[in-house]
Amino acid sequence: MMKTITVLPGDGIGPEVTASAVRVLKSIFSTSNRNVQFIEKKIGGAAIDAYGTPLPQETIDQCHHSDAILLGAVGGPKWNQQSMQLRPEQGLLGIRKAMGLFANLRPVEAFQALVDASPLKQSFVEQVDFVIVRELTGGLYFGRPSERLGPNQDRVVDTLAYSRQEIQRVVEKAFQLALKRRRKITSIDKANVLESSRMWREVVNETAKRYPEVAVTHQLVDSAAMQLITNPSQFDVLVTENMFGDILSDEASVLTGSLGMMPSASLRADKVGLYEPAHGSAPDIAGQGKANPLATILSAALLLRYSLDMDTEAAQIETAVRQILNQGIHTSDLHVANHEDQIVSTSEMTDHVIHAINANRT
Ligand code: NAD
Ligand code: IPM
Ligand code: MN
């Protein structure tokens, strides 16, 4: 049966990195006899320019008729002055919410070839292999009211709201994931201050009873931020509230050498998912062919694994990426000390990945 992947390139380097991932996917589908169609739609600033809204109905409808969505990034200086509803970022939040994608998985794995690229000591980074499970459709990002108040509009409120069920379903995903890994969960909250965190902790402890084989610890978010740097190899699966997860994931990306290395999968109960790099639209390097496409290419691997049941092909992408990095080939965002290294452009890196996948298959 034919599968449909909707591509939402977005803004800045978004179109460059999604083009790379689409090329990798097309190469894989053509050699594995899979019938997959790609349909491109607009989101973010590109959609504001074309339709006057960051998330046109047409884009939402197309996503609802897809097996998977591949997204680049949204936002940029051009749209920074817009009112909140018109900002590109609302398009991204809107599609996550409209699709009900409540669990955002962000794997953090230290590639051996890149341990020098992190500002941290090699010994801290070497063993790093964990996944952040970030709640994606609730919490501070979506709580209402979120507005200016008072006669002079000089009071402001944002709301951190969760239902027990919203916490339950993402925590459940984290436990399921832990079963396939090293069976350790760290739940991150601010239970010493926030009521929402106290309920979060309750739900984690209740769920833990059904998973006796999984070891559970709780950490406060401030101390977790410190431990991500001082003892990152302790972590296996981290599960946390939307905004905590947003902040901690950029921090964690430093362990991999660059924000340009961190993929993500946004999932729900069925197999439909949205896949995007954790980084943004990088306006400072957009259009220069400098963007690291690996976060998006690795997101495409997650797409194959979670939405299309193509585990073998997903692993082929991951192996190819590892091999190329081991050869000292990388984009300019990775500051590796080795002078023999070869710095390549976005499209050259993509060619290398495709070539390595094909070479490994024959
Ligand atoms: P950013 O992630 O776009 O960039 C941060 C830094 O990392 C920049 O120096 C950038 O050049 C570098 N960088 C990021 N991705 C890279 C890659 N693939 N290759 C090489 N270098 C890379 O964050 P920002 O500058 O704070 O935000 C820019 C815009 O992106 C804002 O409008 C923001 O809202 C938006 N944003 C979007 C998403 C998303 O669409 N998922 C995520 C984060 C930020
Ligand atoms: C991310 C981004 C988004 C978020 C922004 C652009 C809305 O930072 O995907 O991490 O905060 O979720
Ligand atoms: Mn973020």
TrEMBL record:
Domain of life according to the entry:
Bacteria
Q: Which UniProt keywords apply?
A: Amino-acid biosynthesis, Branched-chain amino acid biosynthesis, Cytoplasm, Leucine biosynthesis, Magnesium, Manganese, Metal-binding, NAD, Oxidoreductase
Return the annotated site residues (Important for catalysis). 141, 190
Please state the pathway this protein functions in, per its UniProt record.
Answer: Amino-acid biosynthesis; L-leucine biosynthesis; L-leucine from 3-methyl-2-oxobutanoate: step 3/4
> For this protein, what does the record note about how its cofactor is bound?
Binds 1 Mg(2+) or Mn(2+) ion per subunit.
Recorded family membership: Belongs to the isocitrate and isopropylmalate dehydrogenases family. LeuB type 1 subfamily.
User: Which function does this protein serve?
Assistant: Catalyzes the oxidation of 3-carboxy-2-hydroxy-4-methylpentanoate (3-isopropylmalate) to 3-carboxy-4-methyl-2-oxopentanoate. The product decarboxylates to 4-methyl-2 oxopentanoate.
Report what the protein is called.
Answer: 3-isopropylmalate dehydrogenase
Per the UniProt record, the source organism is Sporolactobacillus terrae
Per the UniProt record, the lineage of the source organism begins with: Bacteria, Bacillati, Bacillota, Bacilli, Bacillales
Name the gene.
leuB
